[in-house]
Amino acid sequence: MKVLLIAPQPPPYGGMALQAGQLAALLRGDGVDVDVFASNFELPRILAPLARVSGVRTVVRALLVWVELWRRITRSTVVHVFAASWLYFFVVVYPAVVVSRARGARVVINYRGGEAGAFFRRYYVPNNATLTLAGDFDPDAARALVEKYFGPIPSGPPVVRTLPPPVSLRAETRIALEAKVQQPQVFIDFPTARGLSKGDHEMDLLALVLAGGKASRLYRRLVYELQIAQSVSANQQSQLLQSVFEISASPLGGHTLDEVVKVIDEELEALRTKPVEEAELERVKNQLEFEQLRSLEPALGRAERLQAYNLQAGDPGYLARDLAMYRALDAAALRAAANQYLRKDGRVVVTVTPNPDAPIMGRIKAPSP
C-alpha cells in the first residue's frame, strides 16, 4: 500500500504540520510507503512576484495543486489529506478528493478547523445535497428508508452560489521540478471553460483528436512515427467552476522533454490554423459517445452520472442533451476553441526530471550555473 499524505510542512511548525509529520513517521515505522505533498509549497522562483499579489497568488497556487495532485495520486492507493475550513478546503482538499476519485484512490479527510461547526451547518444540509440510489431495490421500500433516516435532518439556510470570473493567463509560465522518479515527464495545462458550458464539449473532442488512442495525432507522431516518447495523454478535466485541459508526455531514453514539447506545439498550432477533417471529427465523436455509454454499464457509473448532471445542470436526465451537444459540434467550433484556450501564452508548463538525490515529492530545480 502507498499513502499520499497531503498537509502543510514546517516551517511554520503548526499543529497540522507536526501531526502530519508524526503520522508519516508512524506509518513508515509500520512499513507503509508514504509520499508527502506539502500543501504550503513555495511558488517557483519565476512566480515569486505573484506571491505578493492577493487573489492572483491563490489562483496560481490552486492550478499548481491540481497539476501536482494529478501526477502524484496516480501512484497512491490511499490519499490522506489534512483538511481545514474555508479557502484551504477549496484550494487543497476539494482537488484532492476529485483527483483521488478520478485516479481510483481511496480518500481519508482528516478535518480540523476552529470553524468546522459553522462550515458544516452551512453546507452539509439537506437543501444542499443530493442522494442517489442505484441498484436492484424496491423504490417504495427505499423511499421509506430514506424518509426514516434522512427525513428528520433539519434544512439549513439557502446556499447562494456565485460563479467567479474565469481564470485567464496572460503569459506562459514554466516550472522546472526534479524528483526521485524514473522517467522525465512534462505537463502542459490550460485553464478552460467550466463543465457543461460553451467550450467544454469542444475540449473533450480536442483531447481525443490529440491523444485519444493510437490513431490520434500526438500518439501517431510522438510514439509511432518519431519514436521519441513512450507515452502521451490529453484530457479535459471538467469542473463546476473552472476546468483544466492537460497534455502530459514522457520521452523515450535518449530524447528530451524539449523535443517532445516542440512536437506538441506543432500539433497545437495545426489545430489552431487548420480545421479538423470530417472523418477525424466523426471518429472522435463516435469514440466519445461509445466511452460515455460504456461508463453507464455499472450501477455506480449511472449513479455518478445522475449525480453529476443534477449538480452541474440541475437535471439528472441531461445525458441525451449532453450527447446531442457533442454531435452538433463541427470543425469550425473545435478550431475556435483551440484558438481560445490552447494558446501558448495561456498555459503552465511543468517539467519533471529525474534526480536520485531529490525528494520523491519533488522540488524546484535549481538554475544551471
* Residue runs with pLDDT of under 50 for 5 or more positions: none
CATH superfamily of the largest domain: Metalloenzyme, LuxS/M16 peptidase-like
**Overall outline:** globular
Count of structural domains? 2
Strand tally is 10
Rg from alpha-carbon coordinates? 22 Å
Number of helices: 12
CATH topology call of the largest domain? Cytochrome Bc1 Complex, Chain A, domain 1
Amount of helix = 40-55%
Oligomer: single chain
Mean pLDDT: 89
Any idea of the CATH class of the largest domain? Alpha Beta
Q: How would a crystallographer describe the biggest sheet?
A: 6 strands, mixed
Strand content: 15-25%
Q: How would you spell out the order of helices and strands?
A: EHEHEHEHHEEHHEEHHHHHEE
Widest sheet, order of strands? 7-8-6-9-5-10
Identify the notable features of this structure and list them briefly.
18% strand; 10 strands; 2 domains; six-stranded mixed sheet; Rossmann fold; 12 helices; 369 residues; alpha/beta; four-stranded parallel sheet; Cytochrome Bc1 Complex, Chain A, domain 1
Task: Provide an overview of this structure.
The chain contains twelve helices and ten strands. It starts with a strand and ends in a 5-residue tail after the last strand. Helices cover 43% and strands 18% of the residues. Helix 2 (56-72) packs parallel to helix 3. The strands form two sheets. The protein has a six-stranded mixed β-sheet with strand order 7-8-6-9-5-10. Strands 2-1-3-4 form a four-stranded parallel β-sheet, with helices on both faces.
